[in-house]
Amino acid sequence: MSYQLLTLLLLPLVGSGLLFAYRGQAGKFLALGLALVQMLVTVSMLCDFDSKLTVDSVLQHEINYPWLKSVKSTLHFGVDGMGMLMLLLTNALVPLIIVSSCKAASSYRNSFYALVLLMQFGLVGVFTALDGLLFYIFWEVTLIPIWFIAGLWGQENKRFEFTTKFFVYTFVGSLFMLGAFVYVYQYAPSFAVTDMYNAHLNLNQQTVVFWFIFFAFAVKLPVFPFHTWQPDTYTYSPTQGTMLLAGIMLKMAVYGVLRYLLPVVPDAIAGISGFIVIVLAIIGVLHGALIALIQNDVKRILAYSSFSHVGLMVAGIFASAMLVLNGTFTIEGGEGALVQAFAHGFNVVGLFYCADILSRRFGTRDLNQMGGLARVAPKFAVLFLVILLGSLGVPLTNGFIGEFILLKSVFDYNALAAIIAGVSIILAAGYLLRFYGRTMFNAGNDDVLAEAKDLSSSEFLVLAVIAGVVLFFGIFPQPIIGMVSSSLEFIYKAMLN
């Protein structure tokens, strides 16, 4: 049994319980301490991690105990390259998100930090569960805390409207996934992920299962046209809630597509279903970028930008899957998606924090009422630019290599699709540089700028760490690629069995 993995699972759960019961004034410091311990445990796992292990191997970090014998479901957790990358993303971002809440701490009670840790518990479970039923349970666990975070600390006059829509979309999608998992179980020896890969389903059965599971992931990502909950939820949630949603939670679906969809229903993907998904993803890439161009609310610009970026990840994953099923073995789409998911997690958290800093300095989220901040906040201007360039995919930033690999994988599948998706890069330059130029260099209100200050110590820490990640993994992306390659080879080969 892996005591490190057991610690990752139990520490945030126990910490959440303690914070719910704690009545002192130091709740955020307790939450931050637990999150930092969680990160250190993750780093210790990473230091002795063998990236060549896959879910069909004897995993280096594994917990496997009998649970529900009547339905052949076990408490089986383990970590391969994909899971390790997602754990690193989750447990690195949570401490940054907690630190970012310092300026809003007066409105955040201990229950807020308890919910953040409860969500961290659910996320760790999602990324390590190797049993379909267990995966579904942790998938649902993550919905509960983020629903409360968005509803209780969201914008007052919108919170019930957008949280209900978000909850209904996500919960209904999850039920479709559960129904599909139960159906696959009827044709598989157990709920173990490798047994689900070997379920004997004909093409019609696989097609139905594909759309049931894909619906759940498409809502969470989101993929066009299942995205209508996202802009309002990202806009009206508290900044830290938006960070959790965009930075980590949508990565659950990227991971889920690779782990629990591609190898289970390969025949359905080889047919019209895979083609339809690629078309929907490309539509989403363009749709999100075009809508972002005309937005003036800084959070909505970033919401639609995130939607556009996710569409390219989905297109790359399915493009590689279609190529593999047509006889050309490649893992580039999966590689690009995971590299981009890791980069996007840090970049979008940084950008939403920059949007929060801007809205607090100017007292509004309206882009037209901002300007001139670079004159009085040079440190912020520099760090904001580095993070923005990462999101834009400029060479030597973390967003470049993943975007390049994704576009190449889509091009290998269909050149026209890659050209259409590539237009989004030009559009991204339009809305992101417009965002930066207006806030930093436009003529601003002198009275507002006289009151504005540069970054506080906590703000500088969060943005500096994220900017460091943007530059480090832009120059050295190979650690991520090397971490996930064996897992992806297993996933794509499983589609051929």
Characterization of this structure:
The structure is a single chain. Helix 3 (81-100) packs antiparallel against helix 4 (110-128) and helix 16 (398-413) packs across helix 19 (457-475). The chain has a two-stranded antiparallel sheet with strand order 1-2. It has helices at residues 3-21, 27-47, 81-100, 110-128, 132-153, 159-185, 193-197, 203-220, 230-236, 239-261, 266-293, 298-325, 332-362, 373-376, 378-392, 398-413, 415-441, 446-451, 457-475, 478-494; strands spanning 62-68, 73-78. The chain is built from 20 helices and two strands.
SS-derived structural category: mainly alpha
Compute the CA-based radius of gyration: 22 Å
General shape: globular
Kindly report the spatial arrangement of strands forming the biggest sheet.
1-2
Largest sheet: 2 strands, antiparallel
String of helices and strands: HHEEHHHHHHHHHHHHHHHHHH
* Low-pLDDT segments, ≥5 res: none
Please indicate the percent range of residues in DSSP E strands (runs of 2 or more): under 5%
Helicity range of the residues?
over 70%
**DSSP helix count?**
20
Defining key terms:
single chain; 497 residues; mainly alpha; 20 helices; globular
Helix and strand topology:
Layout: H1 3-21, H2 27-47, E1 62-68, E2 73-78, H3 81-100, H4 110-128, H5 132-153, H6 159-185, H7 193-197, H8 203-220, H9 230-236, H10 239-261, H11 266-293, H12 298-325, H13 332-362, H14 373-376, H15 378-392, H16 398-413, H17 415-441, H18 446-451, H19 457-475, H20 478-494
Antiparallel strand pairs: 1-2
